[in-house]
Design goal:
This protein folds into three domains: about 5-75 and about 100-265, Phosphoenolpyruvate Carboxykinase, domain 1 (3-Layer(aba) Sandwich), CATH 3.40.449; about 270-335 and about 425-634, Phosphoenolpyruvate Carboxykinase, domain 3 (Alpha-Beta Complex), CATH 3.90.228.20; about 335-415, Beta Complex (Phosphoenolpyruvate Carboxykinase, domain 2), CATH 2.170.8. The strands form eight sheets. Strands 1, 2, 3, 6, 7, 8, 9, 10, 11, 12 and 13 form an eleven-stranded mixed β-sheet that branches. Strands 17-15-16-28-32-29 form a six-stranded mixed β-sheet, with helices on both faces. α11 (about 455-460) packs antiparallel against α12, α11 packs across α16 (about 610-634) and α15 (about 590-605) packs antiparallel against α16. β8 and β9 form a beta hairpin. By secondary structure, it is α/β, with parallel strands linked by helices. It has 16 helices and 34 strands.
Length: about 625
Amino acid sequence: MELNMAIAETLNPSIAGGKNTPRPVVSAVPAYSGAGMDALRAWVDEIAALTKPARIHWVDGSRAENETLLRGMVDEGRLIKLNPEWRPGSYLARSHPGDVARTEGRTFIASEREEDAGPTNNWAEPTAMRAELEGVFDGSMRGRTMYVVPFSMGAVGGPLSHIGVQLTDSAYAVVSMSIMTRVGKDVTKLIAEGADWVRTVHSVGAPLAPGEQDVPWPCSDTKYVVHFPETLEVFSYGSGYGGNAILAKKCFALRIASVIGRDQGWLAEHMLLIRVIDPKGKAYHVAAAFPSACGKTNLAMLRPTIPGWHVETLGDDIAWIRPGEDGRLWAINPEAGFFGVAPGTGESTNVTAIETLWGNTIFTNVALRPDGDVWWEGLTDEIPANLTDWQGNPWTPQSGTPAAHPNSRFTVAAAQCPQIAEDWDAPQGVPLDVILFGGRRATNVPLVVEATDWAHGVFLGSTISSERTAAAEGTLGELRRDPFAMLPFCGYNMADYFGHWLTVGGKLRHDLAPRIFQVNWFRRGADGRFLWPGFGDNSRVIDWIIRRISGEVESIESPIGRLPNTADLNLEGIEVPQADLDELFSIDPTSWLHEADLTEEFYATFDGKVPAALQAELASLRYRLTAAQAAATN
């Protein structure tokens, strides 16, 4: 798509990519000077010489530019403009059926040493991988526009923020980045002034020959998502899907940022961030790590069922957490938007999310209603008639396939959330009071357990797991490990990551460090039903946690940590039988000893690199469980 061509200039012939390659046409480059700007322009020239785009557009982040991009994609058949009566300023994208999710099997950490990537990452030798990437990127943008997207994670210039530049040949990626990050000339100015920045390159891998007809969703069967932690670079090839194309998100904000955090002494985490306000008006800040399908978005937008309590959303997916000079941990949400899973999001499960999506939203791979609005499974109880499914085919409940793809998405500005905190993007962040870890466990793990200290809390985080499938619930041997909910997103060896958590905790004031808890909304009874109502009633667990850290209630010691006295839970207005409460907090030493064996097996995959402090926690757990087992048999 050509933008601002009236003020275009041609590139230096040295980057033309060969005498037979036409020189790309470039929109006006920001008129900043300095060594930083020289380095940025040289890098753009270098990537352009490799990828050979027809045009280069420097993104300024303006509303007019964004609207031009959106109109162009509608005209080209890449987006469907939704009915403005129902969903103003919103669009539907339909991806290629083979490009619908993160390509974790083709995601690599190209660290200098294989051991630095660790057993949970796909490692690639960096020199060999660069040669592979040079081969696939050579001419990959031919016939297309290369967009230069300067972006900031966190408020531009903020003390906890970091910046980067993405080069991409996808207008869909550009408009998505404009929602998910702070894009514009202010970032370019920081680079010109010498600020450090992360380099990211993305191509859909579908060059166009002269006169060749394009397709609505270009992509390639060959895919790469490669991270170079030593040089802070990301290269993504072959996919237009948001998780592979919005490189500021998982690639930068977690994999690369986790490496930066390791080196600089802070944490980049797959965590939501909320402010909980009690009936007296006192605010507490909670960060929580949950694997997928464990209620993360619902908690980020929690509407408490307890009168007088209120929750404000600060972030739904990522938190950057730094020790402050005051001995506390301070956190920001580095993103500017939500990239959420649509199916299962409805008025009965997350009314706040539904209200957020009133307009100005890009939907991907959901169903289209005849009236020009969208629908997905879980949005409403009643299924609209005459839907068009995510692949553009007529759909009815008898079709035998989902109307919306199970990983269909919405991309929307965080500022539209009705529960967003007024200071959600404050540069200094918020001080953390509580850290939660949770998985989806039908057995063993109680509704809530408090860690005895920081090292025990890190141990709990390192053992997060979920039953693999609904059919396997209750089968302890089939657990999907996801420590700290970071298994796919940690940019270095997770055993070293556990150690980094211990190091960060050691720098905090003991009385000001966040208290750590593990929660599990999904425990089932012997009859298979959920023992806890969940959703808004999870605020009752938060209520106990807040009263616990405030010193208002005592806890009960157990072999796995500190548990509530069930009488201290605020259950006013709901019916939870005492038998269910007893089962929610029951600890079976025999089952837990088997759980300890599984943890030992998991730790063993790290070839002796798991910190001694966590091995000691595991040994202590076994000792307490063995003592409890002996007491139970006497």
